[in-house]
Amino acid sequence: MTPRFLFSLAVLLTAPAAHAAPALRVPYPNLDAGIRKVTARGGEGTAKIAPELRLLANQFRAAKPAAPDTFVYSKAQLLSRFGIDGSEAEPQVNVALTVAADTGDAALSALGARIYEHSASNTVCARVSVSKIPDLAMESSVYAIRLARSAEYPPVPPSSLRPRIRPFTTSRGGEADAVAFDHQGLTGKGVIVGVVDSGIDWRHADFRRADGSTRILALWDMTDNSWKTSKGKIGSKPPVVGDKEIIGTLYTRAQIDAALGKSGDVKSVDHEGHGTACAGTAAGSGADFPGVAPDADLIVVKAGENGANPFYFLGTQFIADQAKALGEPCVISQSFGSNDTAHDGDSLEEQAMNEIAAPGKAGICICVAAGNDGLSSSHASGRFGALQDGQADIESRPIQLFVDQPTLLDAYFKAGDEWGLAVAGLDKYLIDKAGKPVFFYVARTGKGIKGVTSATPSAPKSFAAFFKTVELDTVSNGQEDHLSIPLEPGSYLIYGFGASAKVTDGAFHLYLPFPGNASFGDGADKHAMVAAPGTASNVITVGSYNIRKSWRNAASKTTSYNLPVGDISDYSSPGFRRDGVVKPEIAAPGAYAISPLAQGSKMSLGADGKPDTASLTPDKQHLAWSGTSAACPYTAGVIALMLQKNPTLDEAQIRKILTGAAQHDDFTGAVPNNLWGYGKLAPAAALTATPAAPDSASSGKMGQPQ
């Protein structure tokens, strides 16, 4: 006998339970009556295209206005996910093409692809017109088309506390100076600190030597077209020149020195201020607020204005290549990330990180910020059992979802399971004419998905049109199914369920790719929220803890917060990775850091657009700020000291030293855990645990891995 079960839909009210509406019960769906759709990637034609790109291509190829019940990316969503402002008639997007081994660039260029890189792994990084994406999919030598995702420079986390401004005192209230540890005579000399971020204020005194010359060996600004527009008179040829496509301008140390001496011109500006603060935290040389490795050399890549270019990993590779050419070890700090991923470490960008810092590569390490989403409700999860006699948990517990603006819901299931997802509207969407909830069921059995509703909905008006925008994809090297569902504003309950007896795992995860548009309620899960590329296997991912709660401000008064010094920062994104890999590995000082200020940058201004006196220091050359963005370069600075002591270390050895030396206390509790990783970064202990370089490698020069 085919078992049948009931979904229980309890309408959630703020009134006491005694006044709650009775539960609505809906029988197990008859999937045979549903609409079938086969969209698993890896087939022919448009099945090669990632689902978000399929939606995008359909949006720009369809007649205007869009048909009812068809999902359309908003202007903000286009900018966030694709870097498209929405006003272009023929927008372009960055993609990664998986191609046959013998595919030449000319064939792809003939289809309109502007090629940036063609790797040995047969991945082509290119920029294409949205309208050309389906044409590329028809090319037999193209196996898959994925989106190259941009990343966000996270804004300084908003505090739920208002700062207290009071007369300045010298009392520190038990706080520690983050850089006041035993450096053991190490300063980072002979080591390169690379920063891929929003740029750098190259004029700032904290990045100059005693004689006034710059400590920046190279500055590649991906957003600055001065070299091209000046016909080579400003800056130098950028390191990546694709098919008629030039990415930015490269400035050498000599050119920066010339600009400092008023005899040259450097057009690069850090409008955000984020990159300047990160560079200074790792390697600033100011007397009052020094960085961790004040004598390190700097190589900086400005990867974008409001966020990092989707091909920011080319900047990471550039820094690694420059360090290798100079024979110096290198640590690269990347304080940005994207939550618009599978959180599994398998994105294009993370694969690139893994290759750059692969085990055995001496003198190269990458640090990544975990993200500032600890207070967000953008992740939920659950588990269901198989559809079989005696199984009491065929459906999961219900998960609340509140949608403010049209958005997408991403769901991930094990590919070995035959799974289902049920979404019930509570008020505005997926309801019938009487306003009662309608269940939308989508299930995978076999290679495709089927969709059906429990009753005829009044919204959406056309279920067929709505279901057409539901997309199925495979991720994690084919180990997981990715389902994308468009939803209109309203309140919902969501269940996972077993679609057949073929359920071996039953776990599923839900994410909101546009967290500002929606949030989970009951069922929200504060796990597996580290942003990419922080889930890459071969990077060191850093969370944030509170180290400073007061400082002397620009008005010569004290700004203070009632922070629990020593505790994890409430915004620090929790791990682990979804497959259980420990992320973040470590937590470092992130609230509050005092770092160099990029003059005129956004970080120097308050909400009113005026200088933020409470955050600026008396010299108005530095500012107090917080975030895993600050914790990441701090860790990079410590690694620079380790590499000065032993430049032959690879990323795996550095990770082992940092995690083995990590501090545990009442705040961290038992480790590893999803907030602290293996504990608090302990700089002095890590330096002590770093073995001396072998005889073949002098301090600051790379030898062979031990």
From TrEMBL:
One of its GO terms (molecular function) is serine-type endopeptidase activity. The active site is at 197 (charge relay system), 274 (charge relay system), 629 (charge relay system). Keywords: Hydrolase, Protease, Serine protease. One of its GO terms (biological process) is proteolysis. Pfam families: Peptidase_S8. Coiled coil: none annotated. Gene3D superfamilies: 2.60.120.1290, Peptidase S8/S53 domain. SUPFAM superfamilies: Subtilisin-like (SSF52743). The keyword Hydrolase applies. Belongs to the peptidase S8 family. PANTHER family: CEREVISIN-RELATED (PTHR43806:SF11), PEPTIDASE S8 (PTHR43806). This is Uncharacterized protein.
